[in-house]
């Protein structure tokens, strides 16, 4: 009898653990990614080198196989395909349509916040550059310009000078599947994330992280620290707001993540959401901080099986995204053994080795690896972070000067 398979849309660093977890649970793995050199290409039993945004074609290619579940961690772009393939293949878990839409349509998510009565801020979604420029003129600078339906920080820019707006709009539109762009106020305050998992209409677990970014112009995530230091009242209000959003979207079971800002008055304003496992190593962070395997939980949910979300411990944990500021060829990685030997190092994962082509960190997909550190106190954690950063060095041979680069083709990567 043919072994049942799990279909994983995406083959990047944040989908790869799902391949391994599926195999550990006794299933074959079908991977889909448009990049022939994706990490999942060598990890799958069957790998389809094609876009994840073509559910009908994918279904036709795998119609002879027994597919028990469909999943796509860390990819907003693939969530509509997850929903459609789950319907076509008749798998046990069917994503809530409104939750899928809120994950892939930032304008719709803003509308949901307004409907629920949660605090909002100035924004406009449109495919018309003139309409977007007129809207921008009514908002205070600086502004955030981003594709309405992309992820992984692709095409996101902070605009502080009106003269830079047309170019920012053009770049954001180039990364949008629909051609729609979002212009919104830039929120000031602490940037945080919540990685949650619902079960039977209730929050089964929530990990709230302090999020560090590159700052302007791209605001790309560089690190998460958990648990974030929130007042009890703010944390209670956050959980209540998350539930209000999930109820409005009909999302009763499964992972969901949010980016939000807490200002100096403790006001919470949500920026984006994804009804799937988070990217940038968030499941790894949750596993080290709380002992919860959300990859397994998400797979078991998709399979229609029971799953365990009971925390085993609570540890102060930091995840650093390893990057370079140079386009070129990675020649050396120095300090790897010394970093692994630090008592606070829980895990060091490198996605590139000597000889690899690497890109400067202008979008989330250009990361070189993850470093996870665990400590008994925030002070110890910060000291370990500084030590690791002083030890680990990436030697990159710069690429030869090239003509002006056009935006990369759209790919299904993390937010």
From TrEMBL:
Keywords noted in UniProt: ATP-binding, Ligase, Nucleotide-binding
GO molecular function: ATP binding; ligase activity; metal ion binding
UniProt entry tagged with the keyword Lyase: no
Keyword rRNA-binding in annotation: no
Domain ATP-grasp residue range list: 110-303
InterPro entries the UniProt entry points to: ATP-dep_AA_Ligase, ATP-grasp, ATP_grasp_subdomain_1, LAL_C2, PreATP-grasp_dom_sf
Signal sequence extent: none
Highest taxon listed in the record's lineage: Bacteria
Protein name (Swiss-Prot/TrEMBL): ATP-grasp domain-containing protein
Lineage: Bacteria, Bacillati, Actinomycetota, Actinomycetes, Kitasatosporales
């Amino acid at each position: 009898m043919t072994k049942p398979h799990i279909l994983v849309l995406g083959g990047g660093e944040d989908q790869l653990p799902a391949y391994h977890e599926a195999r550990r649970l006794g299933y074959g793995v079908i991977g889909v990614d448009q990049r022939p050199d994706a990490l999942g290409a060598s990890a799958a039993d069957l790998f389809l080198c094609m876009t994840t945004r073509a559910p009908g074609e994918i279904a036709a290619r795998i119609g002879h196989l027994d597919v028990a579940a469909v999943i796509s961690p860390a990819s907003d772009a693939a969530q509509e395909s997850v929903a459609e393939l789950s319907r076509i293949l008749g798998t046990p878990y069917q994503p809530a349509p409104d939750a899928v839409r809120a994950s892939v349509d930032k304008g719709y998510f803003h509308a949901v916040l307004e409907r629920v009565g949660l605090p909002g801020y100035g924004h406009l979604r449109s495919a018309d550059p003139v309409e977007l420029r007129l809207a921008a003129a009514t908002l205070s600078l600086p502004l955030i310009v981003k594709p309405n339906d992309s992820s992984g920080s692709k095409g996101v820019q902070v605009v502080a000078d009106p003269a830079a707006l047309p170019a920012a709009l053009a770049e954001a539109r180039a990364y949008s599947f629909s051609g729609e762009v979002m212009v919104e106020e830039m929120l000031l305050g602490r940037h945080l994330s919540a990685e949650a998992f619902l079960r039977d209409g209730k929050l089964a677990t929530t990990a709230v992280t302090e999020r560090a970014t590159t700052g302007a112009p791209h605001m790309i995530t560089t690190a998460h620290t958990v648990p974030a230091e929130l007042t009890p009242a703010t944390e209670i209000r956050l959980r209540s707001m998350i539930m209000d959003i999930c109820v409005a979207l009909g999302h009763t079971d499964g992972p969901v993540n949010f980016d939000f800002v807490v200002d100096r008055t403790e006001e919470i304003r949500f920026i984006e959401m994804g009804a799937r496992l988070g990217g940038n190593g968030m499941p790894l962070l949750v596993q080290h901080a709380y002992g919860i395997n959300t990859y397994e939980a998400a797979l078991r949910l998709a399979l229609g099986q029971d799953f365990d979300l009971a925390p085993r411990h609570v540890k102060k944990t930091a995840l650093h995204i390893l990057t370079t500021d140079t386009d070129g060829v990675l020649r050396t990685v120095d300090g790897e053994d010394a970093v692994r030997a630090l008592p606070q190092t829980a895990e060091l994962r490198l996605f590139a080795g000597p000889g690899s082509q690497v890109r400067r960190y202008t979008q989330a997909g250009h990361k070189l690896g993850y470093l996870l550190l665990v400590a008994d106190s925030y002070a110890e954690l910060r000291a370990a972070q500084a030590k690791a950063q002083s030890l680990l060095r990436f030697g990159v041979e710069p690429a030869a000067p090239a003509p002006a680069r056009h935006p990369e083709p759209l790919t299904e990567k993390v937010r």
